[in-house]
Design a protein that fits this description.
Blueprint: E1 10-15, H1 31-47, E2 52-55, H2 68-76, E3 83-86, E4 89-90, H3 96-109, E5 114-119, H4 126-129, H5 137-153, E6 156-159, E7 167-171, E8 183-187, H6 191-200, E9 203-207, H7 217-229, E10 239-247, H8 251-272, H9 281-287, E11 295-297, H10 299-313, E12 317-321, H11 329-350
Parallel strand pairs: 1-2, 1-12, 2-3, 3-5, 4-5, 5-8, 8-9, 9-10, 10-11, 10-12
Antiparallel strand pairs: 6-7
Helix pairs in contact: 1-2, 1-11, 2-3, 3-5, 6-7, 10-11
């Protein structure tokens, strides 16, 4: 049923719940089917012994999930051991009290498996939706993170800021089953974000979607240095890596199968941002080459890429996004199977299971 787990290095999967058309058939699944498939993927990951399952937040009709806590609560009742996290919660435009209480409730439902991964979000549609201004992009995130950490640390909170009403001896309920919820910050590539995560003393999840992973090493060093200078213990400064992943029996099979979906994914994501050009096969081959951060290949190659990044970052968690670009669910299932049976055991053995 599952693999013996390494307490030091965790392997999991996450979804952003995008609903893109299948590039071969043009068919797009509806939100109900997408949500059902996400719950099924979490069940499979749990049964296979993976460590973490993440669900992202978007507020667009081409994404199926706007409330990770609700989806994760459904998953909590269908799983036994896997940790459940947002990937990410758009903290800039969420009320921190509501976010904390939702995930504290999830922690009770899941018997202590809830986590929060907070980020600023790749899109900005949540700002007008919830009455915030993008002019306050950074300040909102910093203030909301400060409050979220105080809520996590204290049963009653007195607090004041610039963007929401103050709290005076406010009771924050329910309390999670864990003493504190694990909280991470998602970082896309800016030094400022890495330093902020270090100063707060929370985990840092790096979204490494392509290119040479070496370029992220300075961010990890900045993060750990900022955390040390802020007085946080080294063990509190955990690093995770997230990335697009497709695994097949051979490297060539993986690239041949994944290219149409990956090209499709970037085409519709970039169109959402106002531009869209098709990725050529040559561009894809360069992105999937052995020294890059795109996790496409045989199980052996995926292991090599994870270990190479481990040498660079000393991270403790790898999360694979395996369901993008309109991939049929049977291919997602196969990726979960190969990740859990071929990749995870080798990583755990090499890193000292």
């Amino acid at each position: 049923m599952g693999q013996e787990k390494n307490s030091n290095f965790e392997i999991g999967i996450y979804t952003l719940a995008d609903m893109g058309p299948d590039p071969f058939t043009g068919h797009t699944v509806n939100a109900k089917q997408r949500v059902n498939e996400i719950i099924k993927a979490a069940q499979l990951a749990d049964e296979a012994g993976l460590d973490v399952f993440g669900v992202g937040e978007h507020h667009r009709l081409d994404y199926a999930v706007s409330s990770p806590a609700v989806i994760l609560a459904a998953i909590a009742r269908e799983t036994q051991q896997i940790k459940l996290t947002s990937t990410t919660s758009v903290l800039s435009t969420l009320d921190p009290v509501r976010l904390f209480e939702d995930f504290a409730t999830l922690d009770l439902l899941s018997n202590g498996r809830a986590e929060i991964l907070a980020g600023r979000g790749a899109f900005i549609e949540s700002f007008p939706l919830f009455g915030y201004s993008t002019n306050d992009y950074d300040e909102l995130f910093t203030e909301h993170m400060d409050l979220l950490l105080q809520l996590n640390n204290n049963k009653t909170v007195t607090w004041s800021g610039n963007f929401r009403s103050p709290l005076k001896d406010a009771e924050i309920a329910p309390r999670p089953l864990q003493e504190q919820l694990p909280i991470w910050i998602g970082v896309g590539g800016t030094p400022e974000s890495a330093v902020r995560a270090g100063k707060f003393g929370v985990g840092m999840a790096l979204a490494i979607l392509g290119g040479d992973p070496n370029r992220f090493k300075p961010l990890v060093e900045l993060y750990r240095q900022a955390g040390k200078e802020a007085g946080h213990l080294p063990e509190a400064l955990q690093v995770a890596v997230t990335g697009h992943t497709y695994i097949a029996e051979t490297s060539q099979q993986a690239k041949n199968e994944f290219y149409p979906y990956y090209s499709n994914y970037w085409y519709y994501v970039n169109r959402q941002r106002g531009f869209g050009t098709k990725m050529t096969r040559n561009e894809f081959e360069q992105m999937a080459s052995p020294n890059t951060a795109l996790f496409v290949g045989s199980p052996e190659q995926i292991v090599e890429k994870i270990l190479r990044q481990y040498e660079l970052f000393g991270h403790r968690r790898f999360l694979a996004q395996v369901d993008i670009g309109g991939l049929p669910f049977e291919k997602v299932e196969k990726n979960i199977e190969l990740l859990s049976t071929e990749v995870a055991p080798r990583i755990r053995k090499i890193l000292g299971n």
